[in-house]
Amino acid sequence: MDGVKHEAFKPPVPLKLSEIGLEMTLMTGILLKTIFRRNLSDIVDIAEALAVSVPIAQELIDEIRAGGLIETLGARGASTTSSLRYQLTDTGRARALDALQQSEYYGCLPVPLADFWKQTERQKVKDVNIRREDLESSLSHLVMPEGMLDQLGPAVNSGKSVLLFGPPGNGKSSISNGIRDALGDNIFLPRFLEYAGQVISLYDPIIHTLAKTEEFDANALRRLGPTFDQRYALCRRPSVMTGGELTLSMLDLIYNPVSRTYQAPLQLKATGGVFIVDDLGRQAEPPQALINRWIVPMEQHFDILTLQSGQKFMVPFDTLVIFSTNMAPTEMFDGAALRRIYYKIKVDNPSRDDFIKIFVKTCRHYKLRPDEEVLKYLLNTKYPLVDNQFASYQAPFLIDQSLSICEYEGYEPHMSIELIDRAWENLFVED
Questions:
Q1: What is the pLDDT of residues 75-101, one digit of tens each?
Q2: Closest among 72, 172, 161 to 125, alpha carbons compared
Q3: Is residue 218 scored above 70 in pLDDT?
Q4: Which domains does the chain have, with CATH numbers?
Q5: Which of 193, 221, 209 lies closest to 112 in space, CA to CA?
Q6: Whole-Å CA distances, 277 to 142, 156, 255
Q7: Among 250, 218, 224, 257, which Cα is nearest to 46's?
């Protein structure tokens, strides 16, 4: 592999209704509800709402028209290229209301779970093949300890679990985010999934970032040919970060009793990307319980979810799981759990030399001239008071505090020993 980010495999555009992969009753129910809820009449608008081509939307309309549920209003405009318009009959409106009693879902036709499995296999996170230059670029804002990149690279490329541990304030969360940014390509994710007639919402605008692409155009698909199945969203590889708020229930399907639909759990939304569990050990659930929940998914690459009916089913588990903690791993996990975490990387306090690099880099970030006298004062006078216990967050903290003082007191941004002394009081607090 050459380390180049390759174009995502495009899910093929269905060319006929049978290639959608859903039961006819589900599709016609969604069609009726969509026309009813959105008051649609134009065939192009209907196709866009369902995220299918006009010919497929026409096939669906022909299906319900044969049952007397919809009628033709004629064409919009007088030209031969004008699109047909439709309206529900009284029977069709009654059928739409009945369908809404079963489920409030309407709009984009969902993707069958079996098709999601196939698409996931085509764009697995472990196939990204990150190279050193990728990590160097995504972590360039950090000062990395010697040898850290050599540990991180193989861990990321494995697609297996990673544990970052060590004292607080040394960039474990920032490293996790940098790994996420190094996964720089795009993937296709279904907007909605279907299993056993149930609709599961997968695409989440808070988590998923749409890649720049042409907008959906049903007419263009008809005229120019297919691009990709519009039931999918082309996204950056996703990143889900959780902290102390994570509970085991957040890893299950979330059922909405009003709409009678499901929301995908966090790990499913992270498919093809990164799932970061920050501050492991701060959750209400014991760390061992969280690891136990993920042992099978991490090793077997599938997860098991449960519908309200009690029916269980398998979904792909294709995500790089990164655990980050300030606690000692042996205090949180037993030996069996530790063996299941394939890469355990310690992120330690920076050396004196690395602290200097962080100080200089932070000054340049704030467009300040690194003050040699201030740096000597810190190293020779202040840090001996705390046994030279450096941490990566300290230089940015001190400089940011100094600049806040300058702003408040009306000074030009600068560094001085007096400012450092005042900032130091907030860095180390005595009883």
A1: 665 544 457 899 999 999 999 999 999
A2: 161
A3: no
A4: 23-108 (1.10.10.10), 113-346 (3.40.50.300), 352-427 (no CATH)
A5: 193
A6: 20, 15, 23
A7: 218
